[in-house]
Known about the structure:
By secondary structure, the protein is an alpha+beta fold. The protein has helices spanning 25-39, 84-87, 95-110, 124-138, 148-164, 166-174, 207-210, 214-227, 231-245, 251-271, 280-302; strands spanning 2-3, 7-11, 47-56, 59-62, 68-76, 178-180, 190-193, 196-199, 211-213.
Amino acid sequence: MFIGDEYVYKLKKPVDFGFLDFSTREKREFYTHEELRLNRRFSPGIYLDVLPVSQKGDGYLIGDDSNVVEHVLKMKRIDEGQMLYNLLPRNRITPAEMERVGSHLAGLYRLIACDEKSRPFGSPDVIATNVIENFDQTRKYVGGPVDRGRFDALESWSRDFMDKNVPLFEDRIAAGWIKDCHGDLHLQHICLDGPDVFVFDCIEFNERFRFGDVASDVAFLSMDFDYNGRGDLGDVFVRSFIEASGDAAMEGVLLFYKVYRAYVRAKVTSFMLDDAGLDESRKKAAFETARRYYDLAHRYIAS
């Protein structure tokens, strides 16, 4: 990423993690265009263009197509100090602002269609696959950041909820709430700038992580407020979103998705413990962060 005074240029790295594959220039170009297309739904004034990058001798020139070696995403630079994750520790977020975020997002999601491509992602079988995968991938961390009791309780609760609420998930499909969503809606990806609400960094690299119930995105941001000790603001956001969207039935699945989102964060952070290149201080921090997410997920089902 190259940050200027007015614009930011994002360049994808040639990596392949399985769930994310930017290994070829063609794939990087495709996903750069996808990042532009998908994020323009949320912040059209921030996501501006995809530009070619050409090699010129020993240097590179953005916007030149004479000898293209990469493509970059051009974005308007936003004030990082106004991002929710920076405002929250300074006690600079008001309930009125979260009401505005909730109604703003409800309006954006209303414009996203529930169609033949998105609906299957809300099926009980697909949801169960995602949930069961989480537990299969984190079983090895039992005795580490999560103890056996919490792990078993969370797995049992999640499976029971899915088994007992198949009609509820099917109703969500029928009501049109399964969409091509954001997929990563948390405090680091929302910015308040005066009257404007900017949402960015939608997941472009894997449809399975992005498509799903709108309630899952709402639950993610709500969970992030809980994790940071400001569940009151998360509650205001949820109420505002429900009121503006008319999706009162969301309340029936919200706890399930909050557990799911907390557990996903715990899982992703746990993966850092397997990184041989991570120094001990960072591993210790990752261990503590993962433990807190596992504990949060368990508190949801224990309350």
